[in-house]
Amino acid sequence: MSRPLILVSNDDGITAPGIANLVRIVRGLGAEVVVVAPDSPQSGMGHAITIGQPLRLDKSSVFGPEVEAYQCSGTPADCVKIAKHHVLKDRNPDLVVSGINHGSNASVNVLYSGTMSAAIEAAIEGLPAVGFSLGDYGHNADFSHVDEWVSQVCRHALDHGIPAGTALNVNIPKNSSRPIAGLRLCRQARAKWQEEFDTRLDPYRRPYHWLQGTFLNLDSGTDTDEWALAQNFVSVVPCQFDLTAYRGLEQLSQAWQLPLPEVNAAAEPPQPMPGEDYGPANP
Amino acid sequence: MSRPLILVSNDDGITAPGIANLVRIVRGLGAEVVVVAPDSPQSGMGHAITIGQPLRLDKSSVFGPEVEAYQCSGTPADCVKIAKHHVLKDRNPDLVVSGINHGSNASVNVLYSGTMSAAIEAAIEGLPAVGFSLGDYGHNADFSHVDEWVSQVCRHALDHGIPAGTALNVNIPKNSSRPIAGLRLCRQARAKWQEEFDTRLDPYRRPYHWLQGTFLNLDSGTDTDEWALAQNFVSVVPCQFDLTAYRGLEQLSQAWQLPLPEVNAAAEPPQPMPGEDYGPANP
């Protein structure tokens, strides 16, 4: 393709450093870039859409005069919908990228992630899409090591495509003295958040509750995104609308010529057989 | 089990007729019922969670003195988290039910559904969970035909369990002169919304945009939830965190003694092979 068209969104909002880095990197690929991103942070919005309220959409100059950009009052999924059906109309982007999220979206976090919901919404629309996240939650997260990896993934996506019906969940380790070990195709680790609520009293003596959680990786597999990130790999998980796409993993492995991780049967999510632990719950 | 404990939530808010019907039906099963539901409508919230804001949780008497009920300022997923970790603490519910949603959550709607995100959040917590939805969007939706089917599903779930790592997406056709044909295990139909934006000017001459869409079923399979609903069946789809759980369908079919739908290979979502249409996107 001559000059690819890349649509950019995110969930941290149009002024977040993560999206500024993503726009800079995809412009460096020679792409024409259109941005439609939330006008305020939308972390944890999952696949929310706006129903019963209209959306605002305003031109933005935060990326300078050469980037067509809009801020939208909706969720990340809304941004992709209004980008495709209102801003771009009949022009299909060659790639949709979302992020770079401030914080990991590996394993079960994919479900809560606005970054990934933008990518998955694009996949539902039949567009190739990638969500990028960095394992660093700070507003002042260090993005200085990400260029090579974001570029490499985008180039692969533009040159070879992405399995139909999937969006890629790409997580990049936090910057450290260890060099990034490379890209690694993974499955979504089985994990959960162990929640606790911190209950306090407001000045009017009414209680309020802060959600806080500890991340629990329940998966000892060496084929998961959590394992890859712990080894300082960039994890690449193809996600279906049925999230982890095992078949898509195989396809991507062939088309991109990246090794397929060895599936550890023992480490797979539990798939009990009738008569085994497939009995009444909480016996 | 002697007297099961059932946790109830929804996304239409604690005062919606759908949840009143659900509470009434599960009480009819002899269950002890605890409700934690949003204090306002949360339709389309997907798997959103509340980050950066605390939650309010207040006792509610909307279901009368015999039902322990709370309204929560958060999303459906938040409600399940605060129910499990704060309200119920060490008591695990025998079943989590969400709904009854005013409007279908079949096919791709599962992704946008707050009703199903409550059920999926429960499944992540290792709890058996079912989301119920009715194909009738109105606030005054007619629930007069649902009792038998909601009871039947809940009884199956309590007696035989639900495949580990899944939540059931149960959709009930709108009431009509046709009798309900029965329960039917299904896979999630491949579908999408064809969006359009209706752009208007506010009194200050600033544009705003209403999201509106037409539902497109792209799937001709007779093993899908959309097909089942069109034939006036109650559709039952086990959803993984990787949404449609084909293996869970088989397990449920055996454990509940319901026939497994015949999978039409031709009707399955596209899974192109390398070299076929697995090429660069938008060639």
From TrEMBL, chains A, B:
Transmembrane region(s): none
Cofactors (names): a divalent metal cation
Family: Belongs to the SurE nucleotidase family.
The organism's place on the tree of life at top rank: Bacteria
Protein name per Swiss-Prot or TrEMBL: 5'-nucleotidase SurE
Record-listed E.C. numbers: 3.1.3.5
Source species: Hymenobacter saemangeumensis
One Pfam family hit: SurE
Cofactor, how bound (note): Binds 1 divalent metal cation per subunit.
Binding site for a divalent metal cation: 11-12, 43, 101
